[in-house]
Each structure stands twice: as structure tokens, then as C-alpha cells.
Amino acid sequence: MAELDIDQSFLGLAPPEARALCAVEGRAAARMDQAEELRRLAQGSVLTSTVSPTTEPPASRALSIAAPAAVSQPILTPLPQAARPAPKLARAIAISSGKGGVGKSNLAVNLAVALAARGLRVALLDADLGLANADLLCGVTPKLTLEDVVRSGRTIEEVAVPAPGGFFLIPGASGVSLLADLTPTLRRHVVAQLASLERSVDILLIDTGAGIGANSMAFAAAAHTILVATTPEPPAIADAYGAIKTLIARGAGDGIQLVVNMARSEQEVRAVHERIDRVSRAFLHVPIRLVGGVSYDPAVPAAVRRREPLLIASPRARASQELHEIAAVLCGEGSSGFERGSKAELSDSTRLRARASFLGRLAGWFARER
Predict the structure, then answer these.
(1) How far apart are the C-alpha atoms of 98 and 229, rounded to whole Å?
(2) How far is CA 19 from the centre of its chain?
(3) Under DSSP, is residue 204 helix (H, G, I), strand (E, B) or coil?
(4) Which terminus of the chain is more solvent-facing, meaning fewer CB atoms within 10 Å of its CB: N or C?
């Protein structure tokens, strides 16, 4: 009982509020259990690409996104069947947060630029179902969004928008939350389009909504890697821990990594990580890896006002260099100076998780009870 009180105190929740949080988590988990129908559809979409590509229906054909190093703006075009390489599913990286205002979407957009700069084919899926705004940060005005895929049967190729920095943006909209109410035919189309996207890129970034709502946690928990963003402020730390706690309850503990944004110093980054990691180990029995920190930098709000990614507006800014370091760590190419010694803590289940399909896990939530 004493441990529970300490855990609630860290979260900043009174006992009744903590019980309400558990009830919300329980209802969300129950919805995710209603998964069998769409899980079969998702599995079928992936198996079709690996077993019989010559008979693959047009709606589920993989798209080819040219590597950003090859052209100034990538182009989405279907490849001829004979020219397609063996299907390889994208690595899905979700950017999540316990609360709004911690720079989550900014991190997502600029990590997309940093990863594309490394010669990877990158797509950013704006999965903030209520307040999608990645298009504003990129300075683009999309004519279509993910809602058009859901409601009108549009293709991912039609919706994808070339974004500054050489990646593709899939603009989000609230219509995605209506997937469970679609007809079986349209649900199959949506699953086929998401499977096509998963087979067409090297990295699929998912900008989830802030908080621990069912939509946000479903997208985050389905990803191979989950970057939980926080700032050094106590409310942000407490809410980040709440998101981590919810993700671990959904079985996603192996994929969680922490990013401390708007930090004043390296010492502050380490202090925030040590606090969250210590409590997670004590009460959730899961260590939390620190992938990096991003300094408080006046260049960041200046880039937001200009509607331009920071890495393009101010490539020499300190925050830009730190974002490139995080991208290098995510690619296994280097160390940010924060994650030394943490690789040994990664379990075999992390590698097994990386082999699974993001879409296959996400389909469980799409098929929730209607």
C-alpha cells in the first residue's frame, strides 16, 4: 500500500484520480481485445505481398518512395511488378507524450528531416486525431488527409504530401477514429493502404496525440520504438510517467525510450531521466532508456513561426545538432552521449518486437467492438 501511495504521489494524482485513470486504461484495453476480424485482414495484406506479389490487388500494391538523397523532392510512384524488391516492412517509430506543449510534433517533423538526410525513405503519419498540425510545422497545405482514405476510399499515394527535407507527410484528421464503423469493404481498403505504406518506406514515424487516450496509446503501443517526450517541468515529468505506465500495461515496455526536450543543460537531461527511470524500475519493473535530449533554443520557436522545420531554418542551431544525434542513435550509428551502457539492457523481446508488423498490432484497435 505504501508503494502505491508513493507511485501516485510521483504522478501527482490523488487516490480517486488514480482509480479513475486505471478505469480509463481498463476500458481502452478491453476495446483493443476485440481484434480478430481486422487482425486477419492485416495479416492477409502482409502475407499477400510476400507469398504472391504477382496476384496482389491494385489497392494493396506497395508504393515506391524515392530515397531523399536521389531527388530534391521524393516522388510516390508504383514500381512495375518485376522491379519490386522483396517486401521489407518499415520500422515504426511513434513520438508520444503525456501532455501537450512539450514539443512532440516538432520532434516528429525534425526527426523525419534528420532521418531522411541519412538517405532513408521516411514517411510521417500525423496520427493526432484531434489536433493534427504537422502540416503547419512543415509549411504545407494538403488538399487531402487521412480522413479521405477512411471516408472516401482515397489511396495513400493521393494523400501523401512531399514535405521540406525530403520526407512524405500523411496529414491526419479526426475521421480516423471512425474506422470501426466502416463497412467491411472500406475497412479492407484502409488496411490495404496502410500495409502499402508500411512496405514502401524504411522508417514510418507516427506523431500520436498527446495524453493517454485510447487513440494515442493504440498508435504508440503498436510501434516498434516509442519515443516519450517530456520537458524538465514537474507536470510534464509526471504525465510522461503516466504515459509510460499506460504503455507498459499494454505490453509495449521494451520499445519505450525517453527524449527530454527544452532542457537547459546536459545535467538537467540526466536528472529527468534518472527520476523517471528510478520510479519505473521500482514500481513497473521496467528500465527506461534515454535516447537523447534537445536544448532549449530560441531558434525552435522562430522556425515554428516561419512554418519551417528547424533543421532547414537553422541547421547550425544547437537543437538541430542534437536532433541529428538522436537520429543517429535511432539508426544505431552513434551515441548521443546520453545512452552509453543502455544497449546492454535491451532484451531479446525487443528484437522480436522489431520483426512484427506495426499494422498487425494496430489492427487490433481498429477492430474494437462496434
Answers:
(1) 8
(2) 28
(3) strand
(4) N
Specify the residue for cell string 478491453.
30
- In Å, how far from its chain's centre is CA 365? 15
Q: In what order do the strands lie in the sheet with 161-163?
A: 161-163, 167-170, 122-127, 203-208, 91-97, 225-230, 256-263, 289-295
Instruction: Considering only the C-alpha atoms of the chain, give the largest distance between any 2 of them, rounded to a whole number of Å.
Output: 64
The residue type of 185 is: T
At 122, which amino acid appears? V
CA distances from residue 340 to 117, 221, 230, 269, 348 in whole angstroms, order as listed: 24, 25, 20, 14, 19
Q: What is the C-alpha to C-alpha distance for residues 97 and 66, in angstroms, rounded to an integer?
A: 31
Cβ(258)–Cβ(248) below 8 Å: no
* Choice between 55 and 151, residue whose per-residue pLDDT is larger: 151
Output the pLDDT for position 72: 39
State residue 74's pLDDT score.
43
At CA 176, angle to CA 172 and CA 177, rounded to 5?
130
Crossing angle, helix 234-249 and helix 214-222, to 10 degrees? 70
* 207, β-bridge pairs: 95, 126
SS3 259: strand
- The three grid cell numbers given for residue 150, joined into one nine-digit string: 477512411
pLDDT digits (tens, 9 = 90+) for 319-362: 999 999 999 999 987 555 555 434 433 344 445 455 567 877 77
Residue with cell 527506461: 288
* Domain annotation for the chain: domains and CATH numbers: 2-366 (3.40.50.300)
Q: How would you label 15-35 residue by residue, b for 16+ Cβ within 10 Å and e otherwise?
A: eeebeebeeebeebbebbebb
Strand 203-208 relative to strand 167-170, pairing? unpaired
Residue 32: CB partners within 8 Å, gap ≥ 6?
Answer: 214, 218, 250, 364, 365, 368
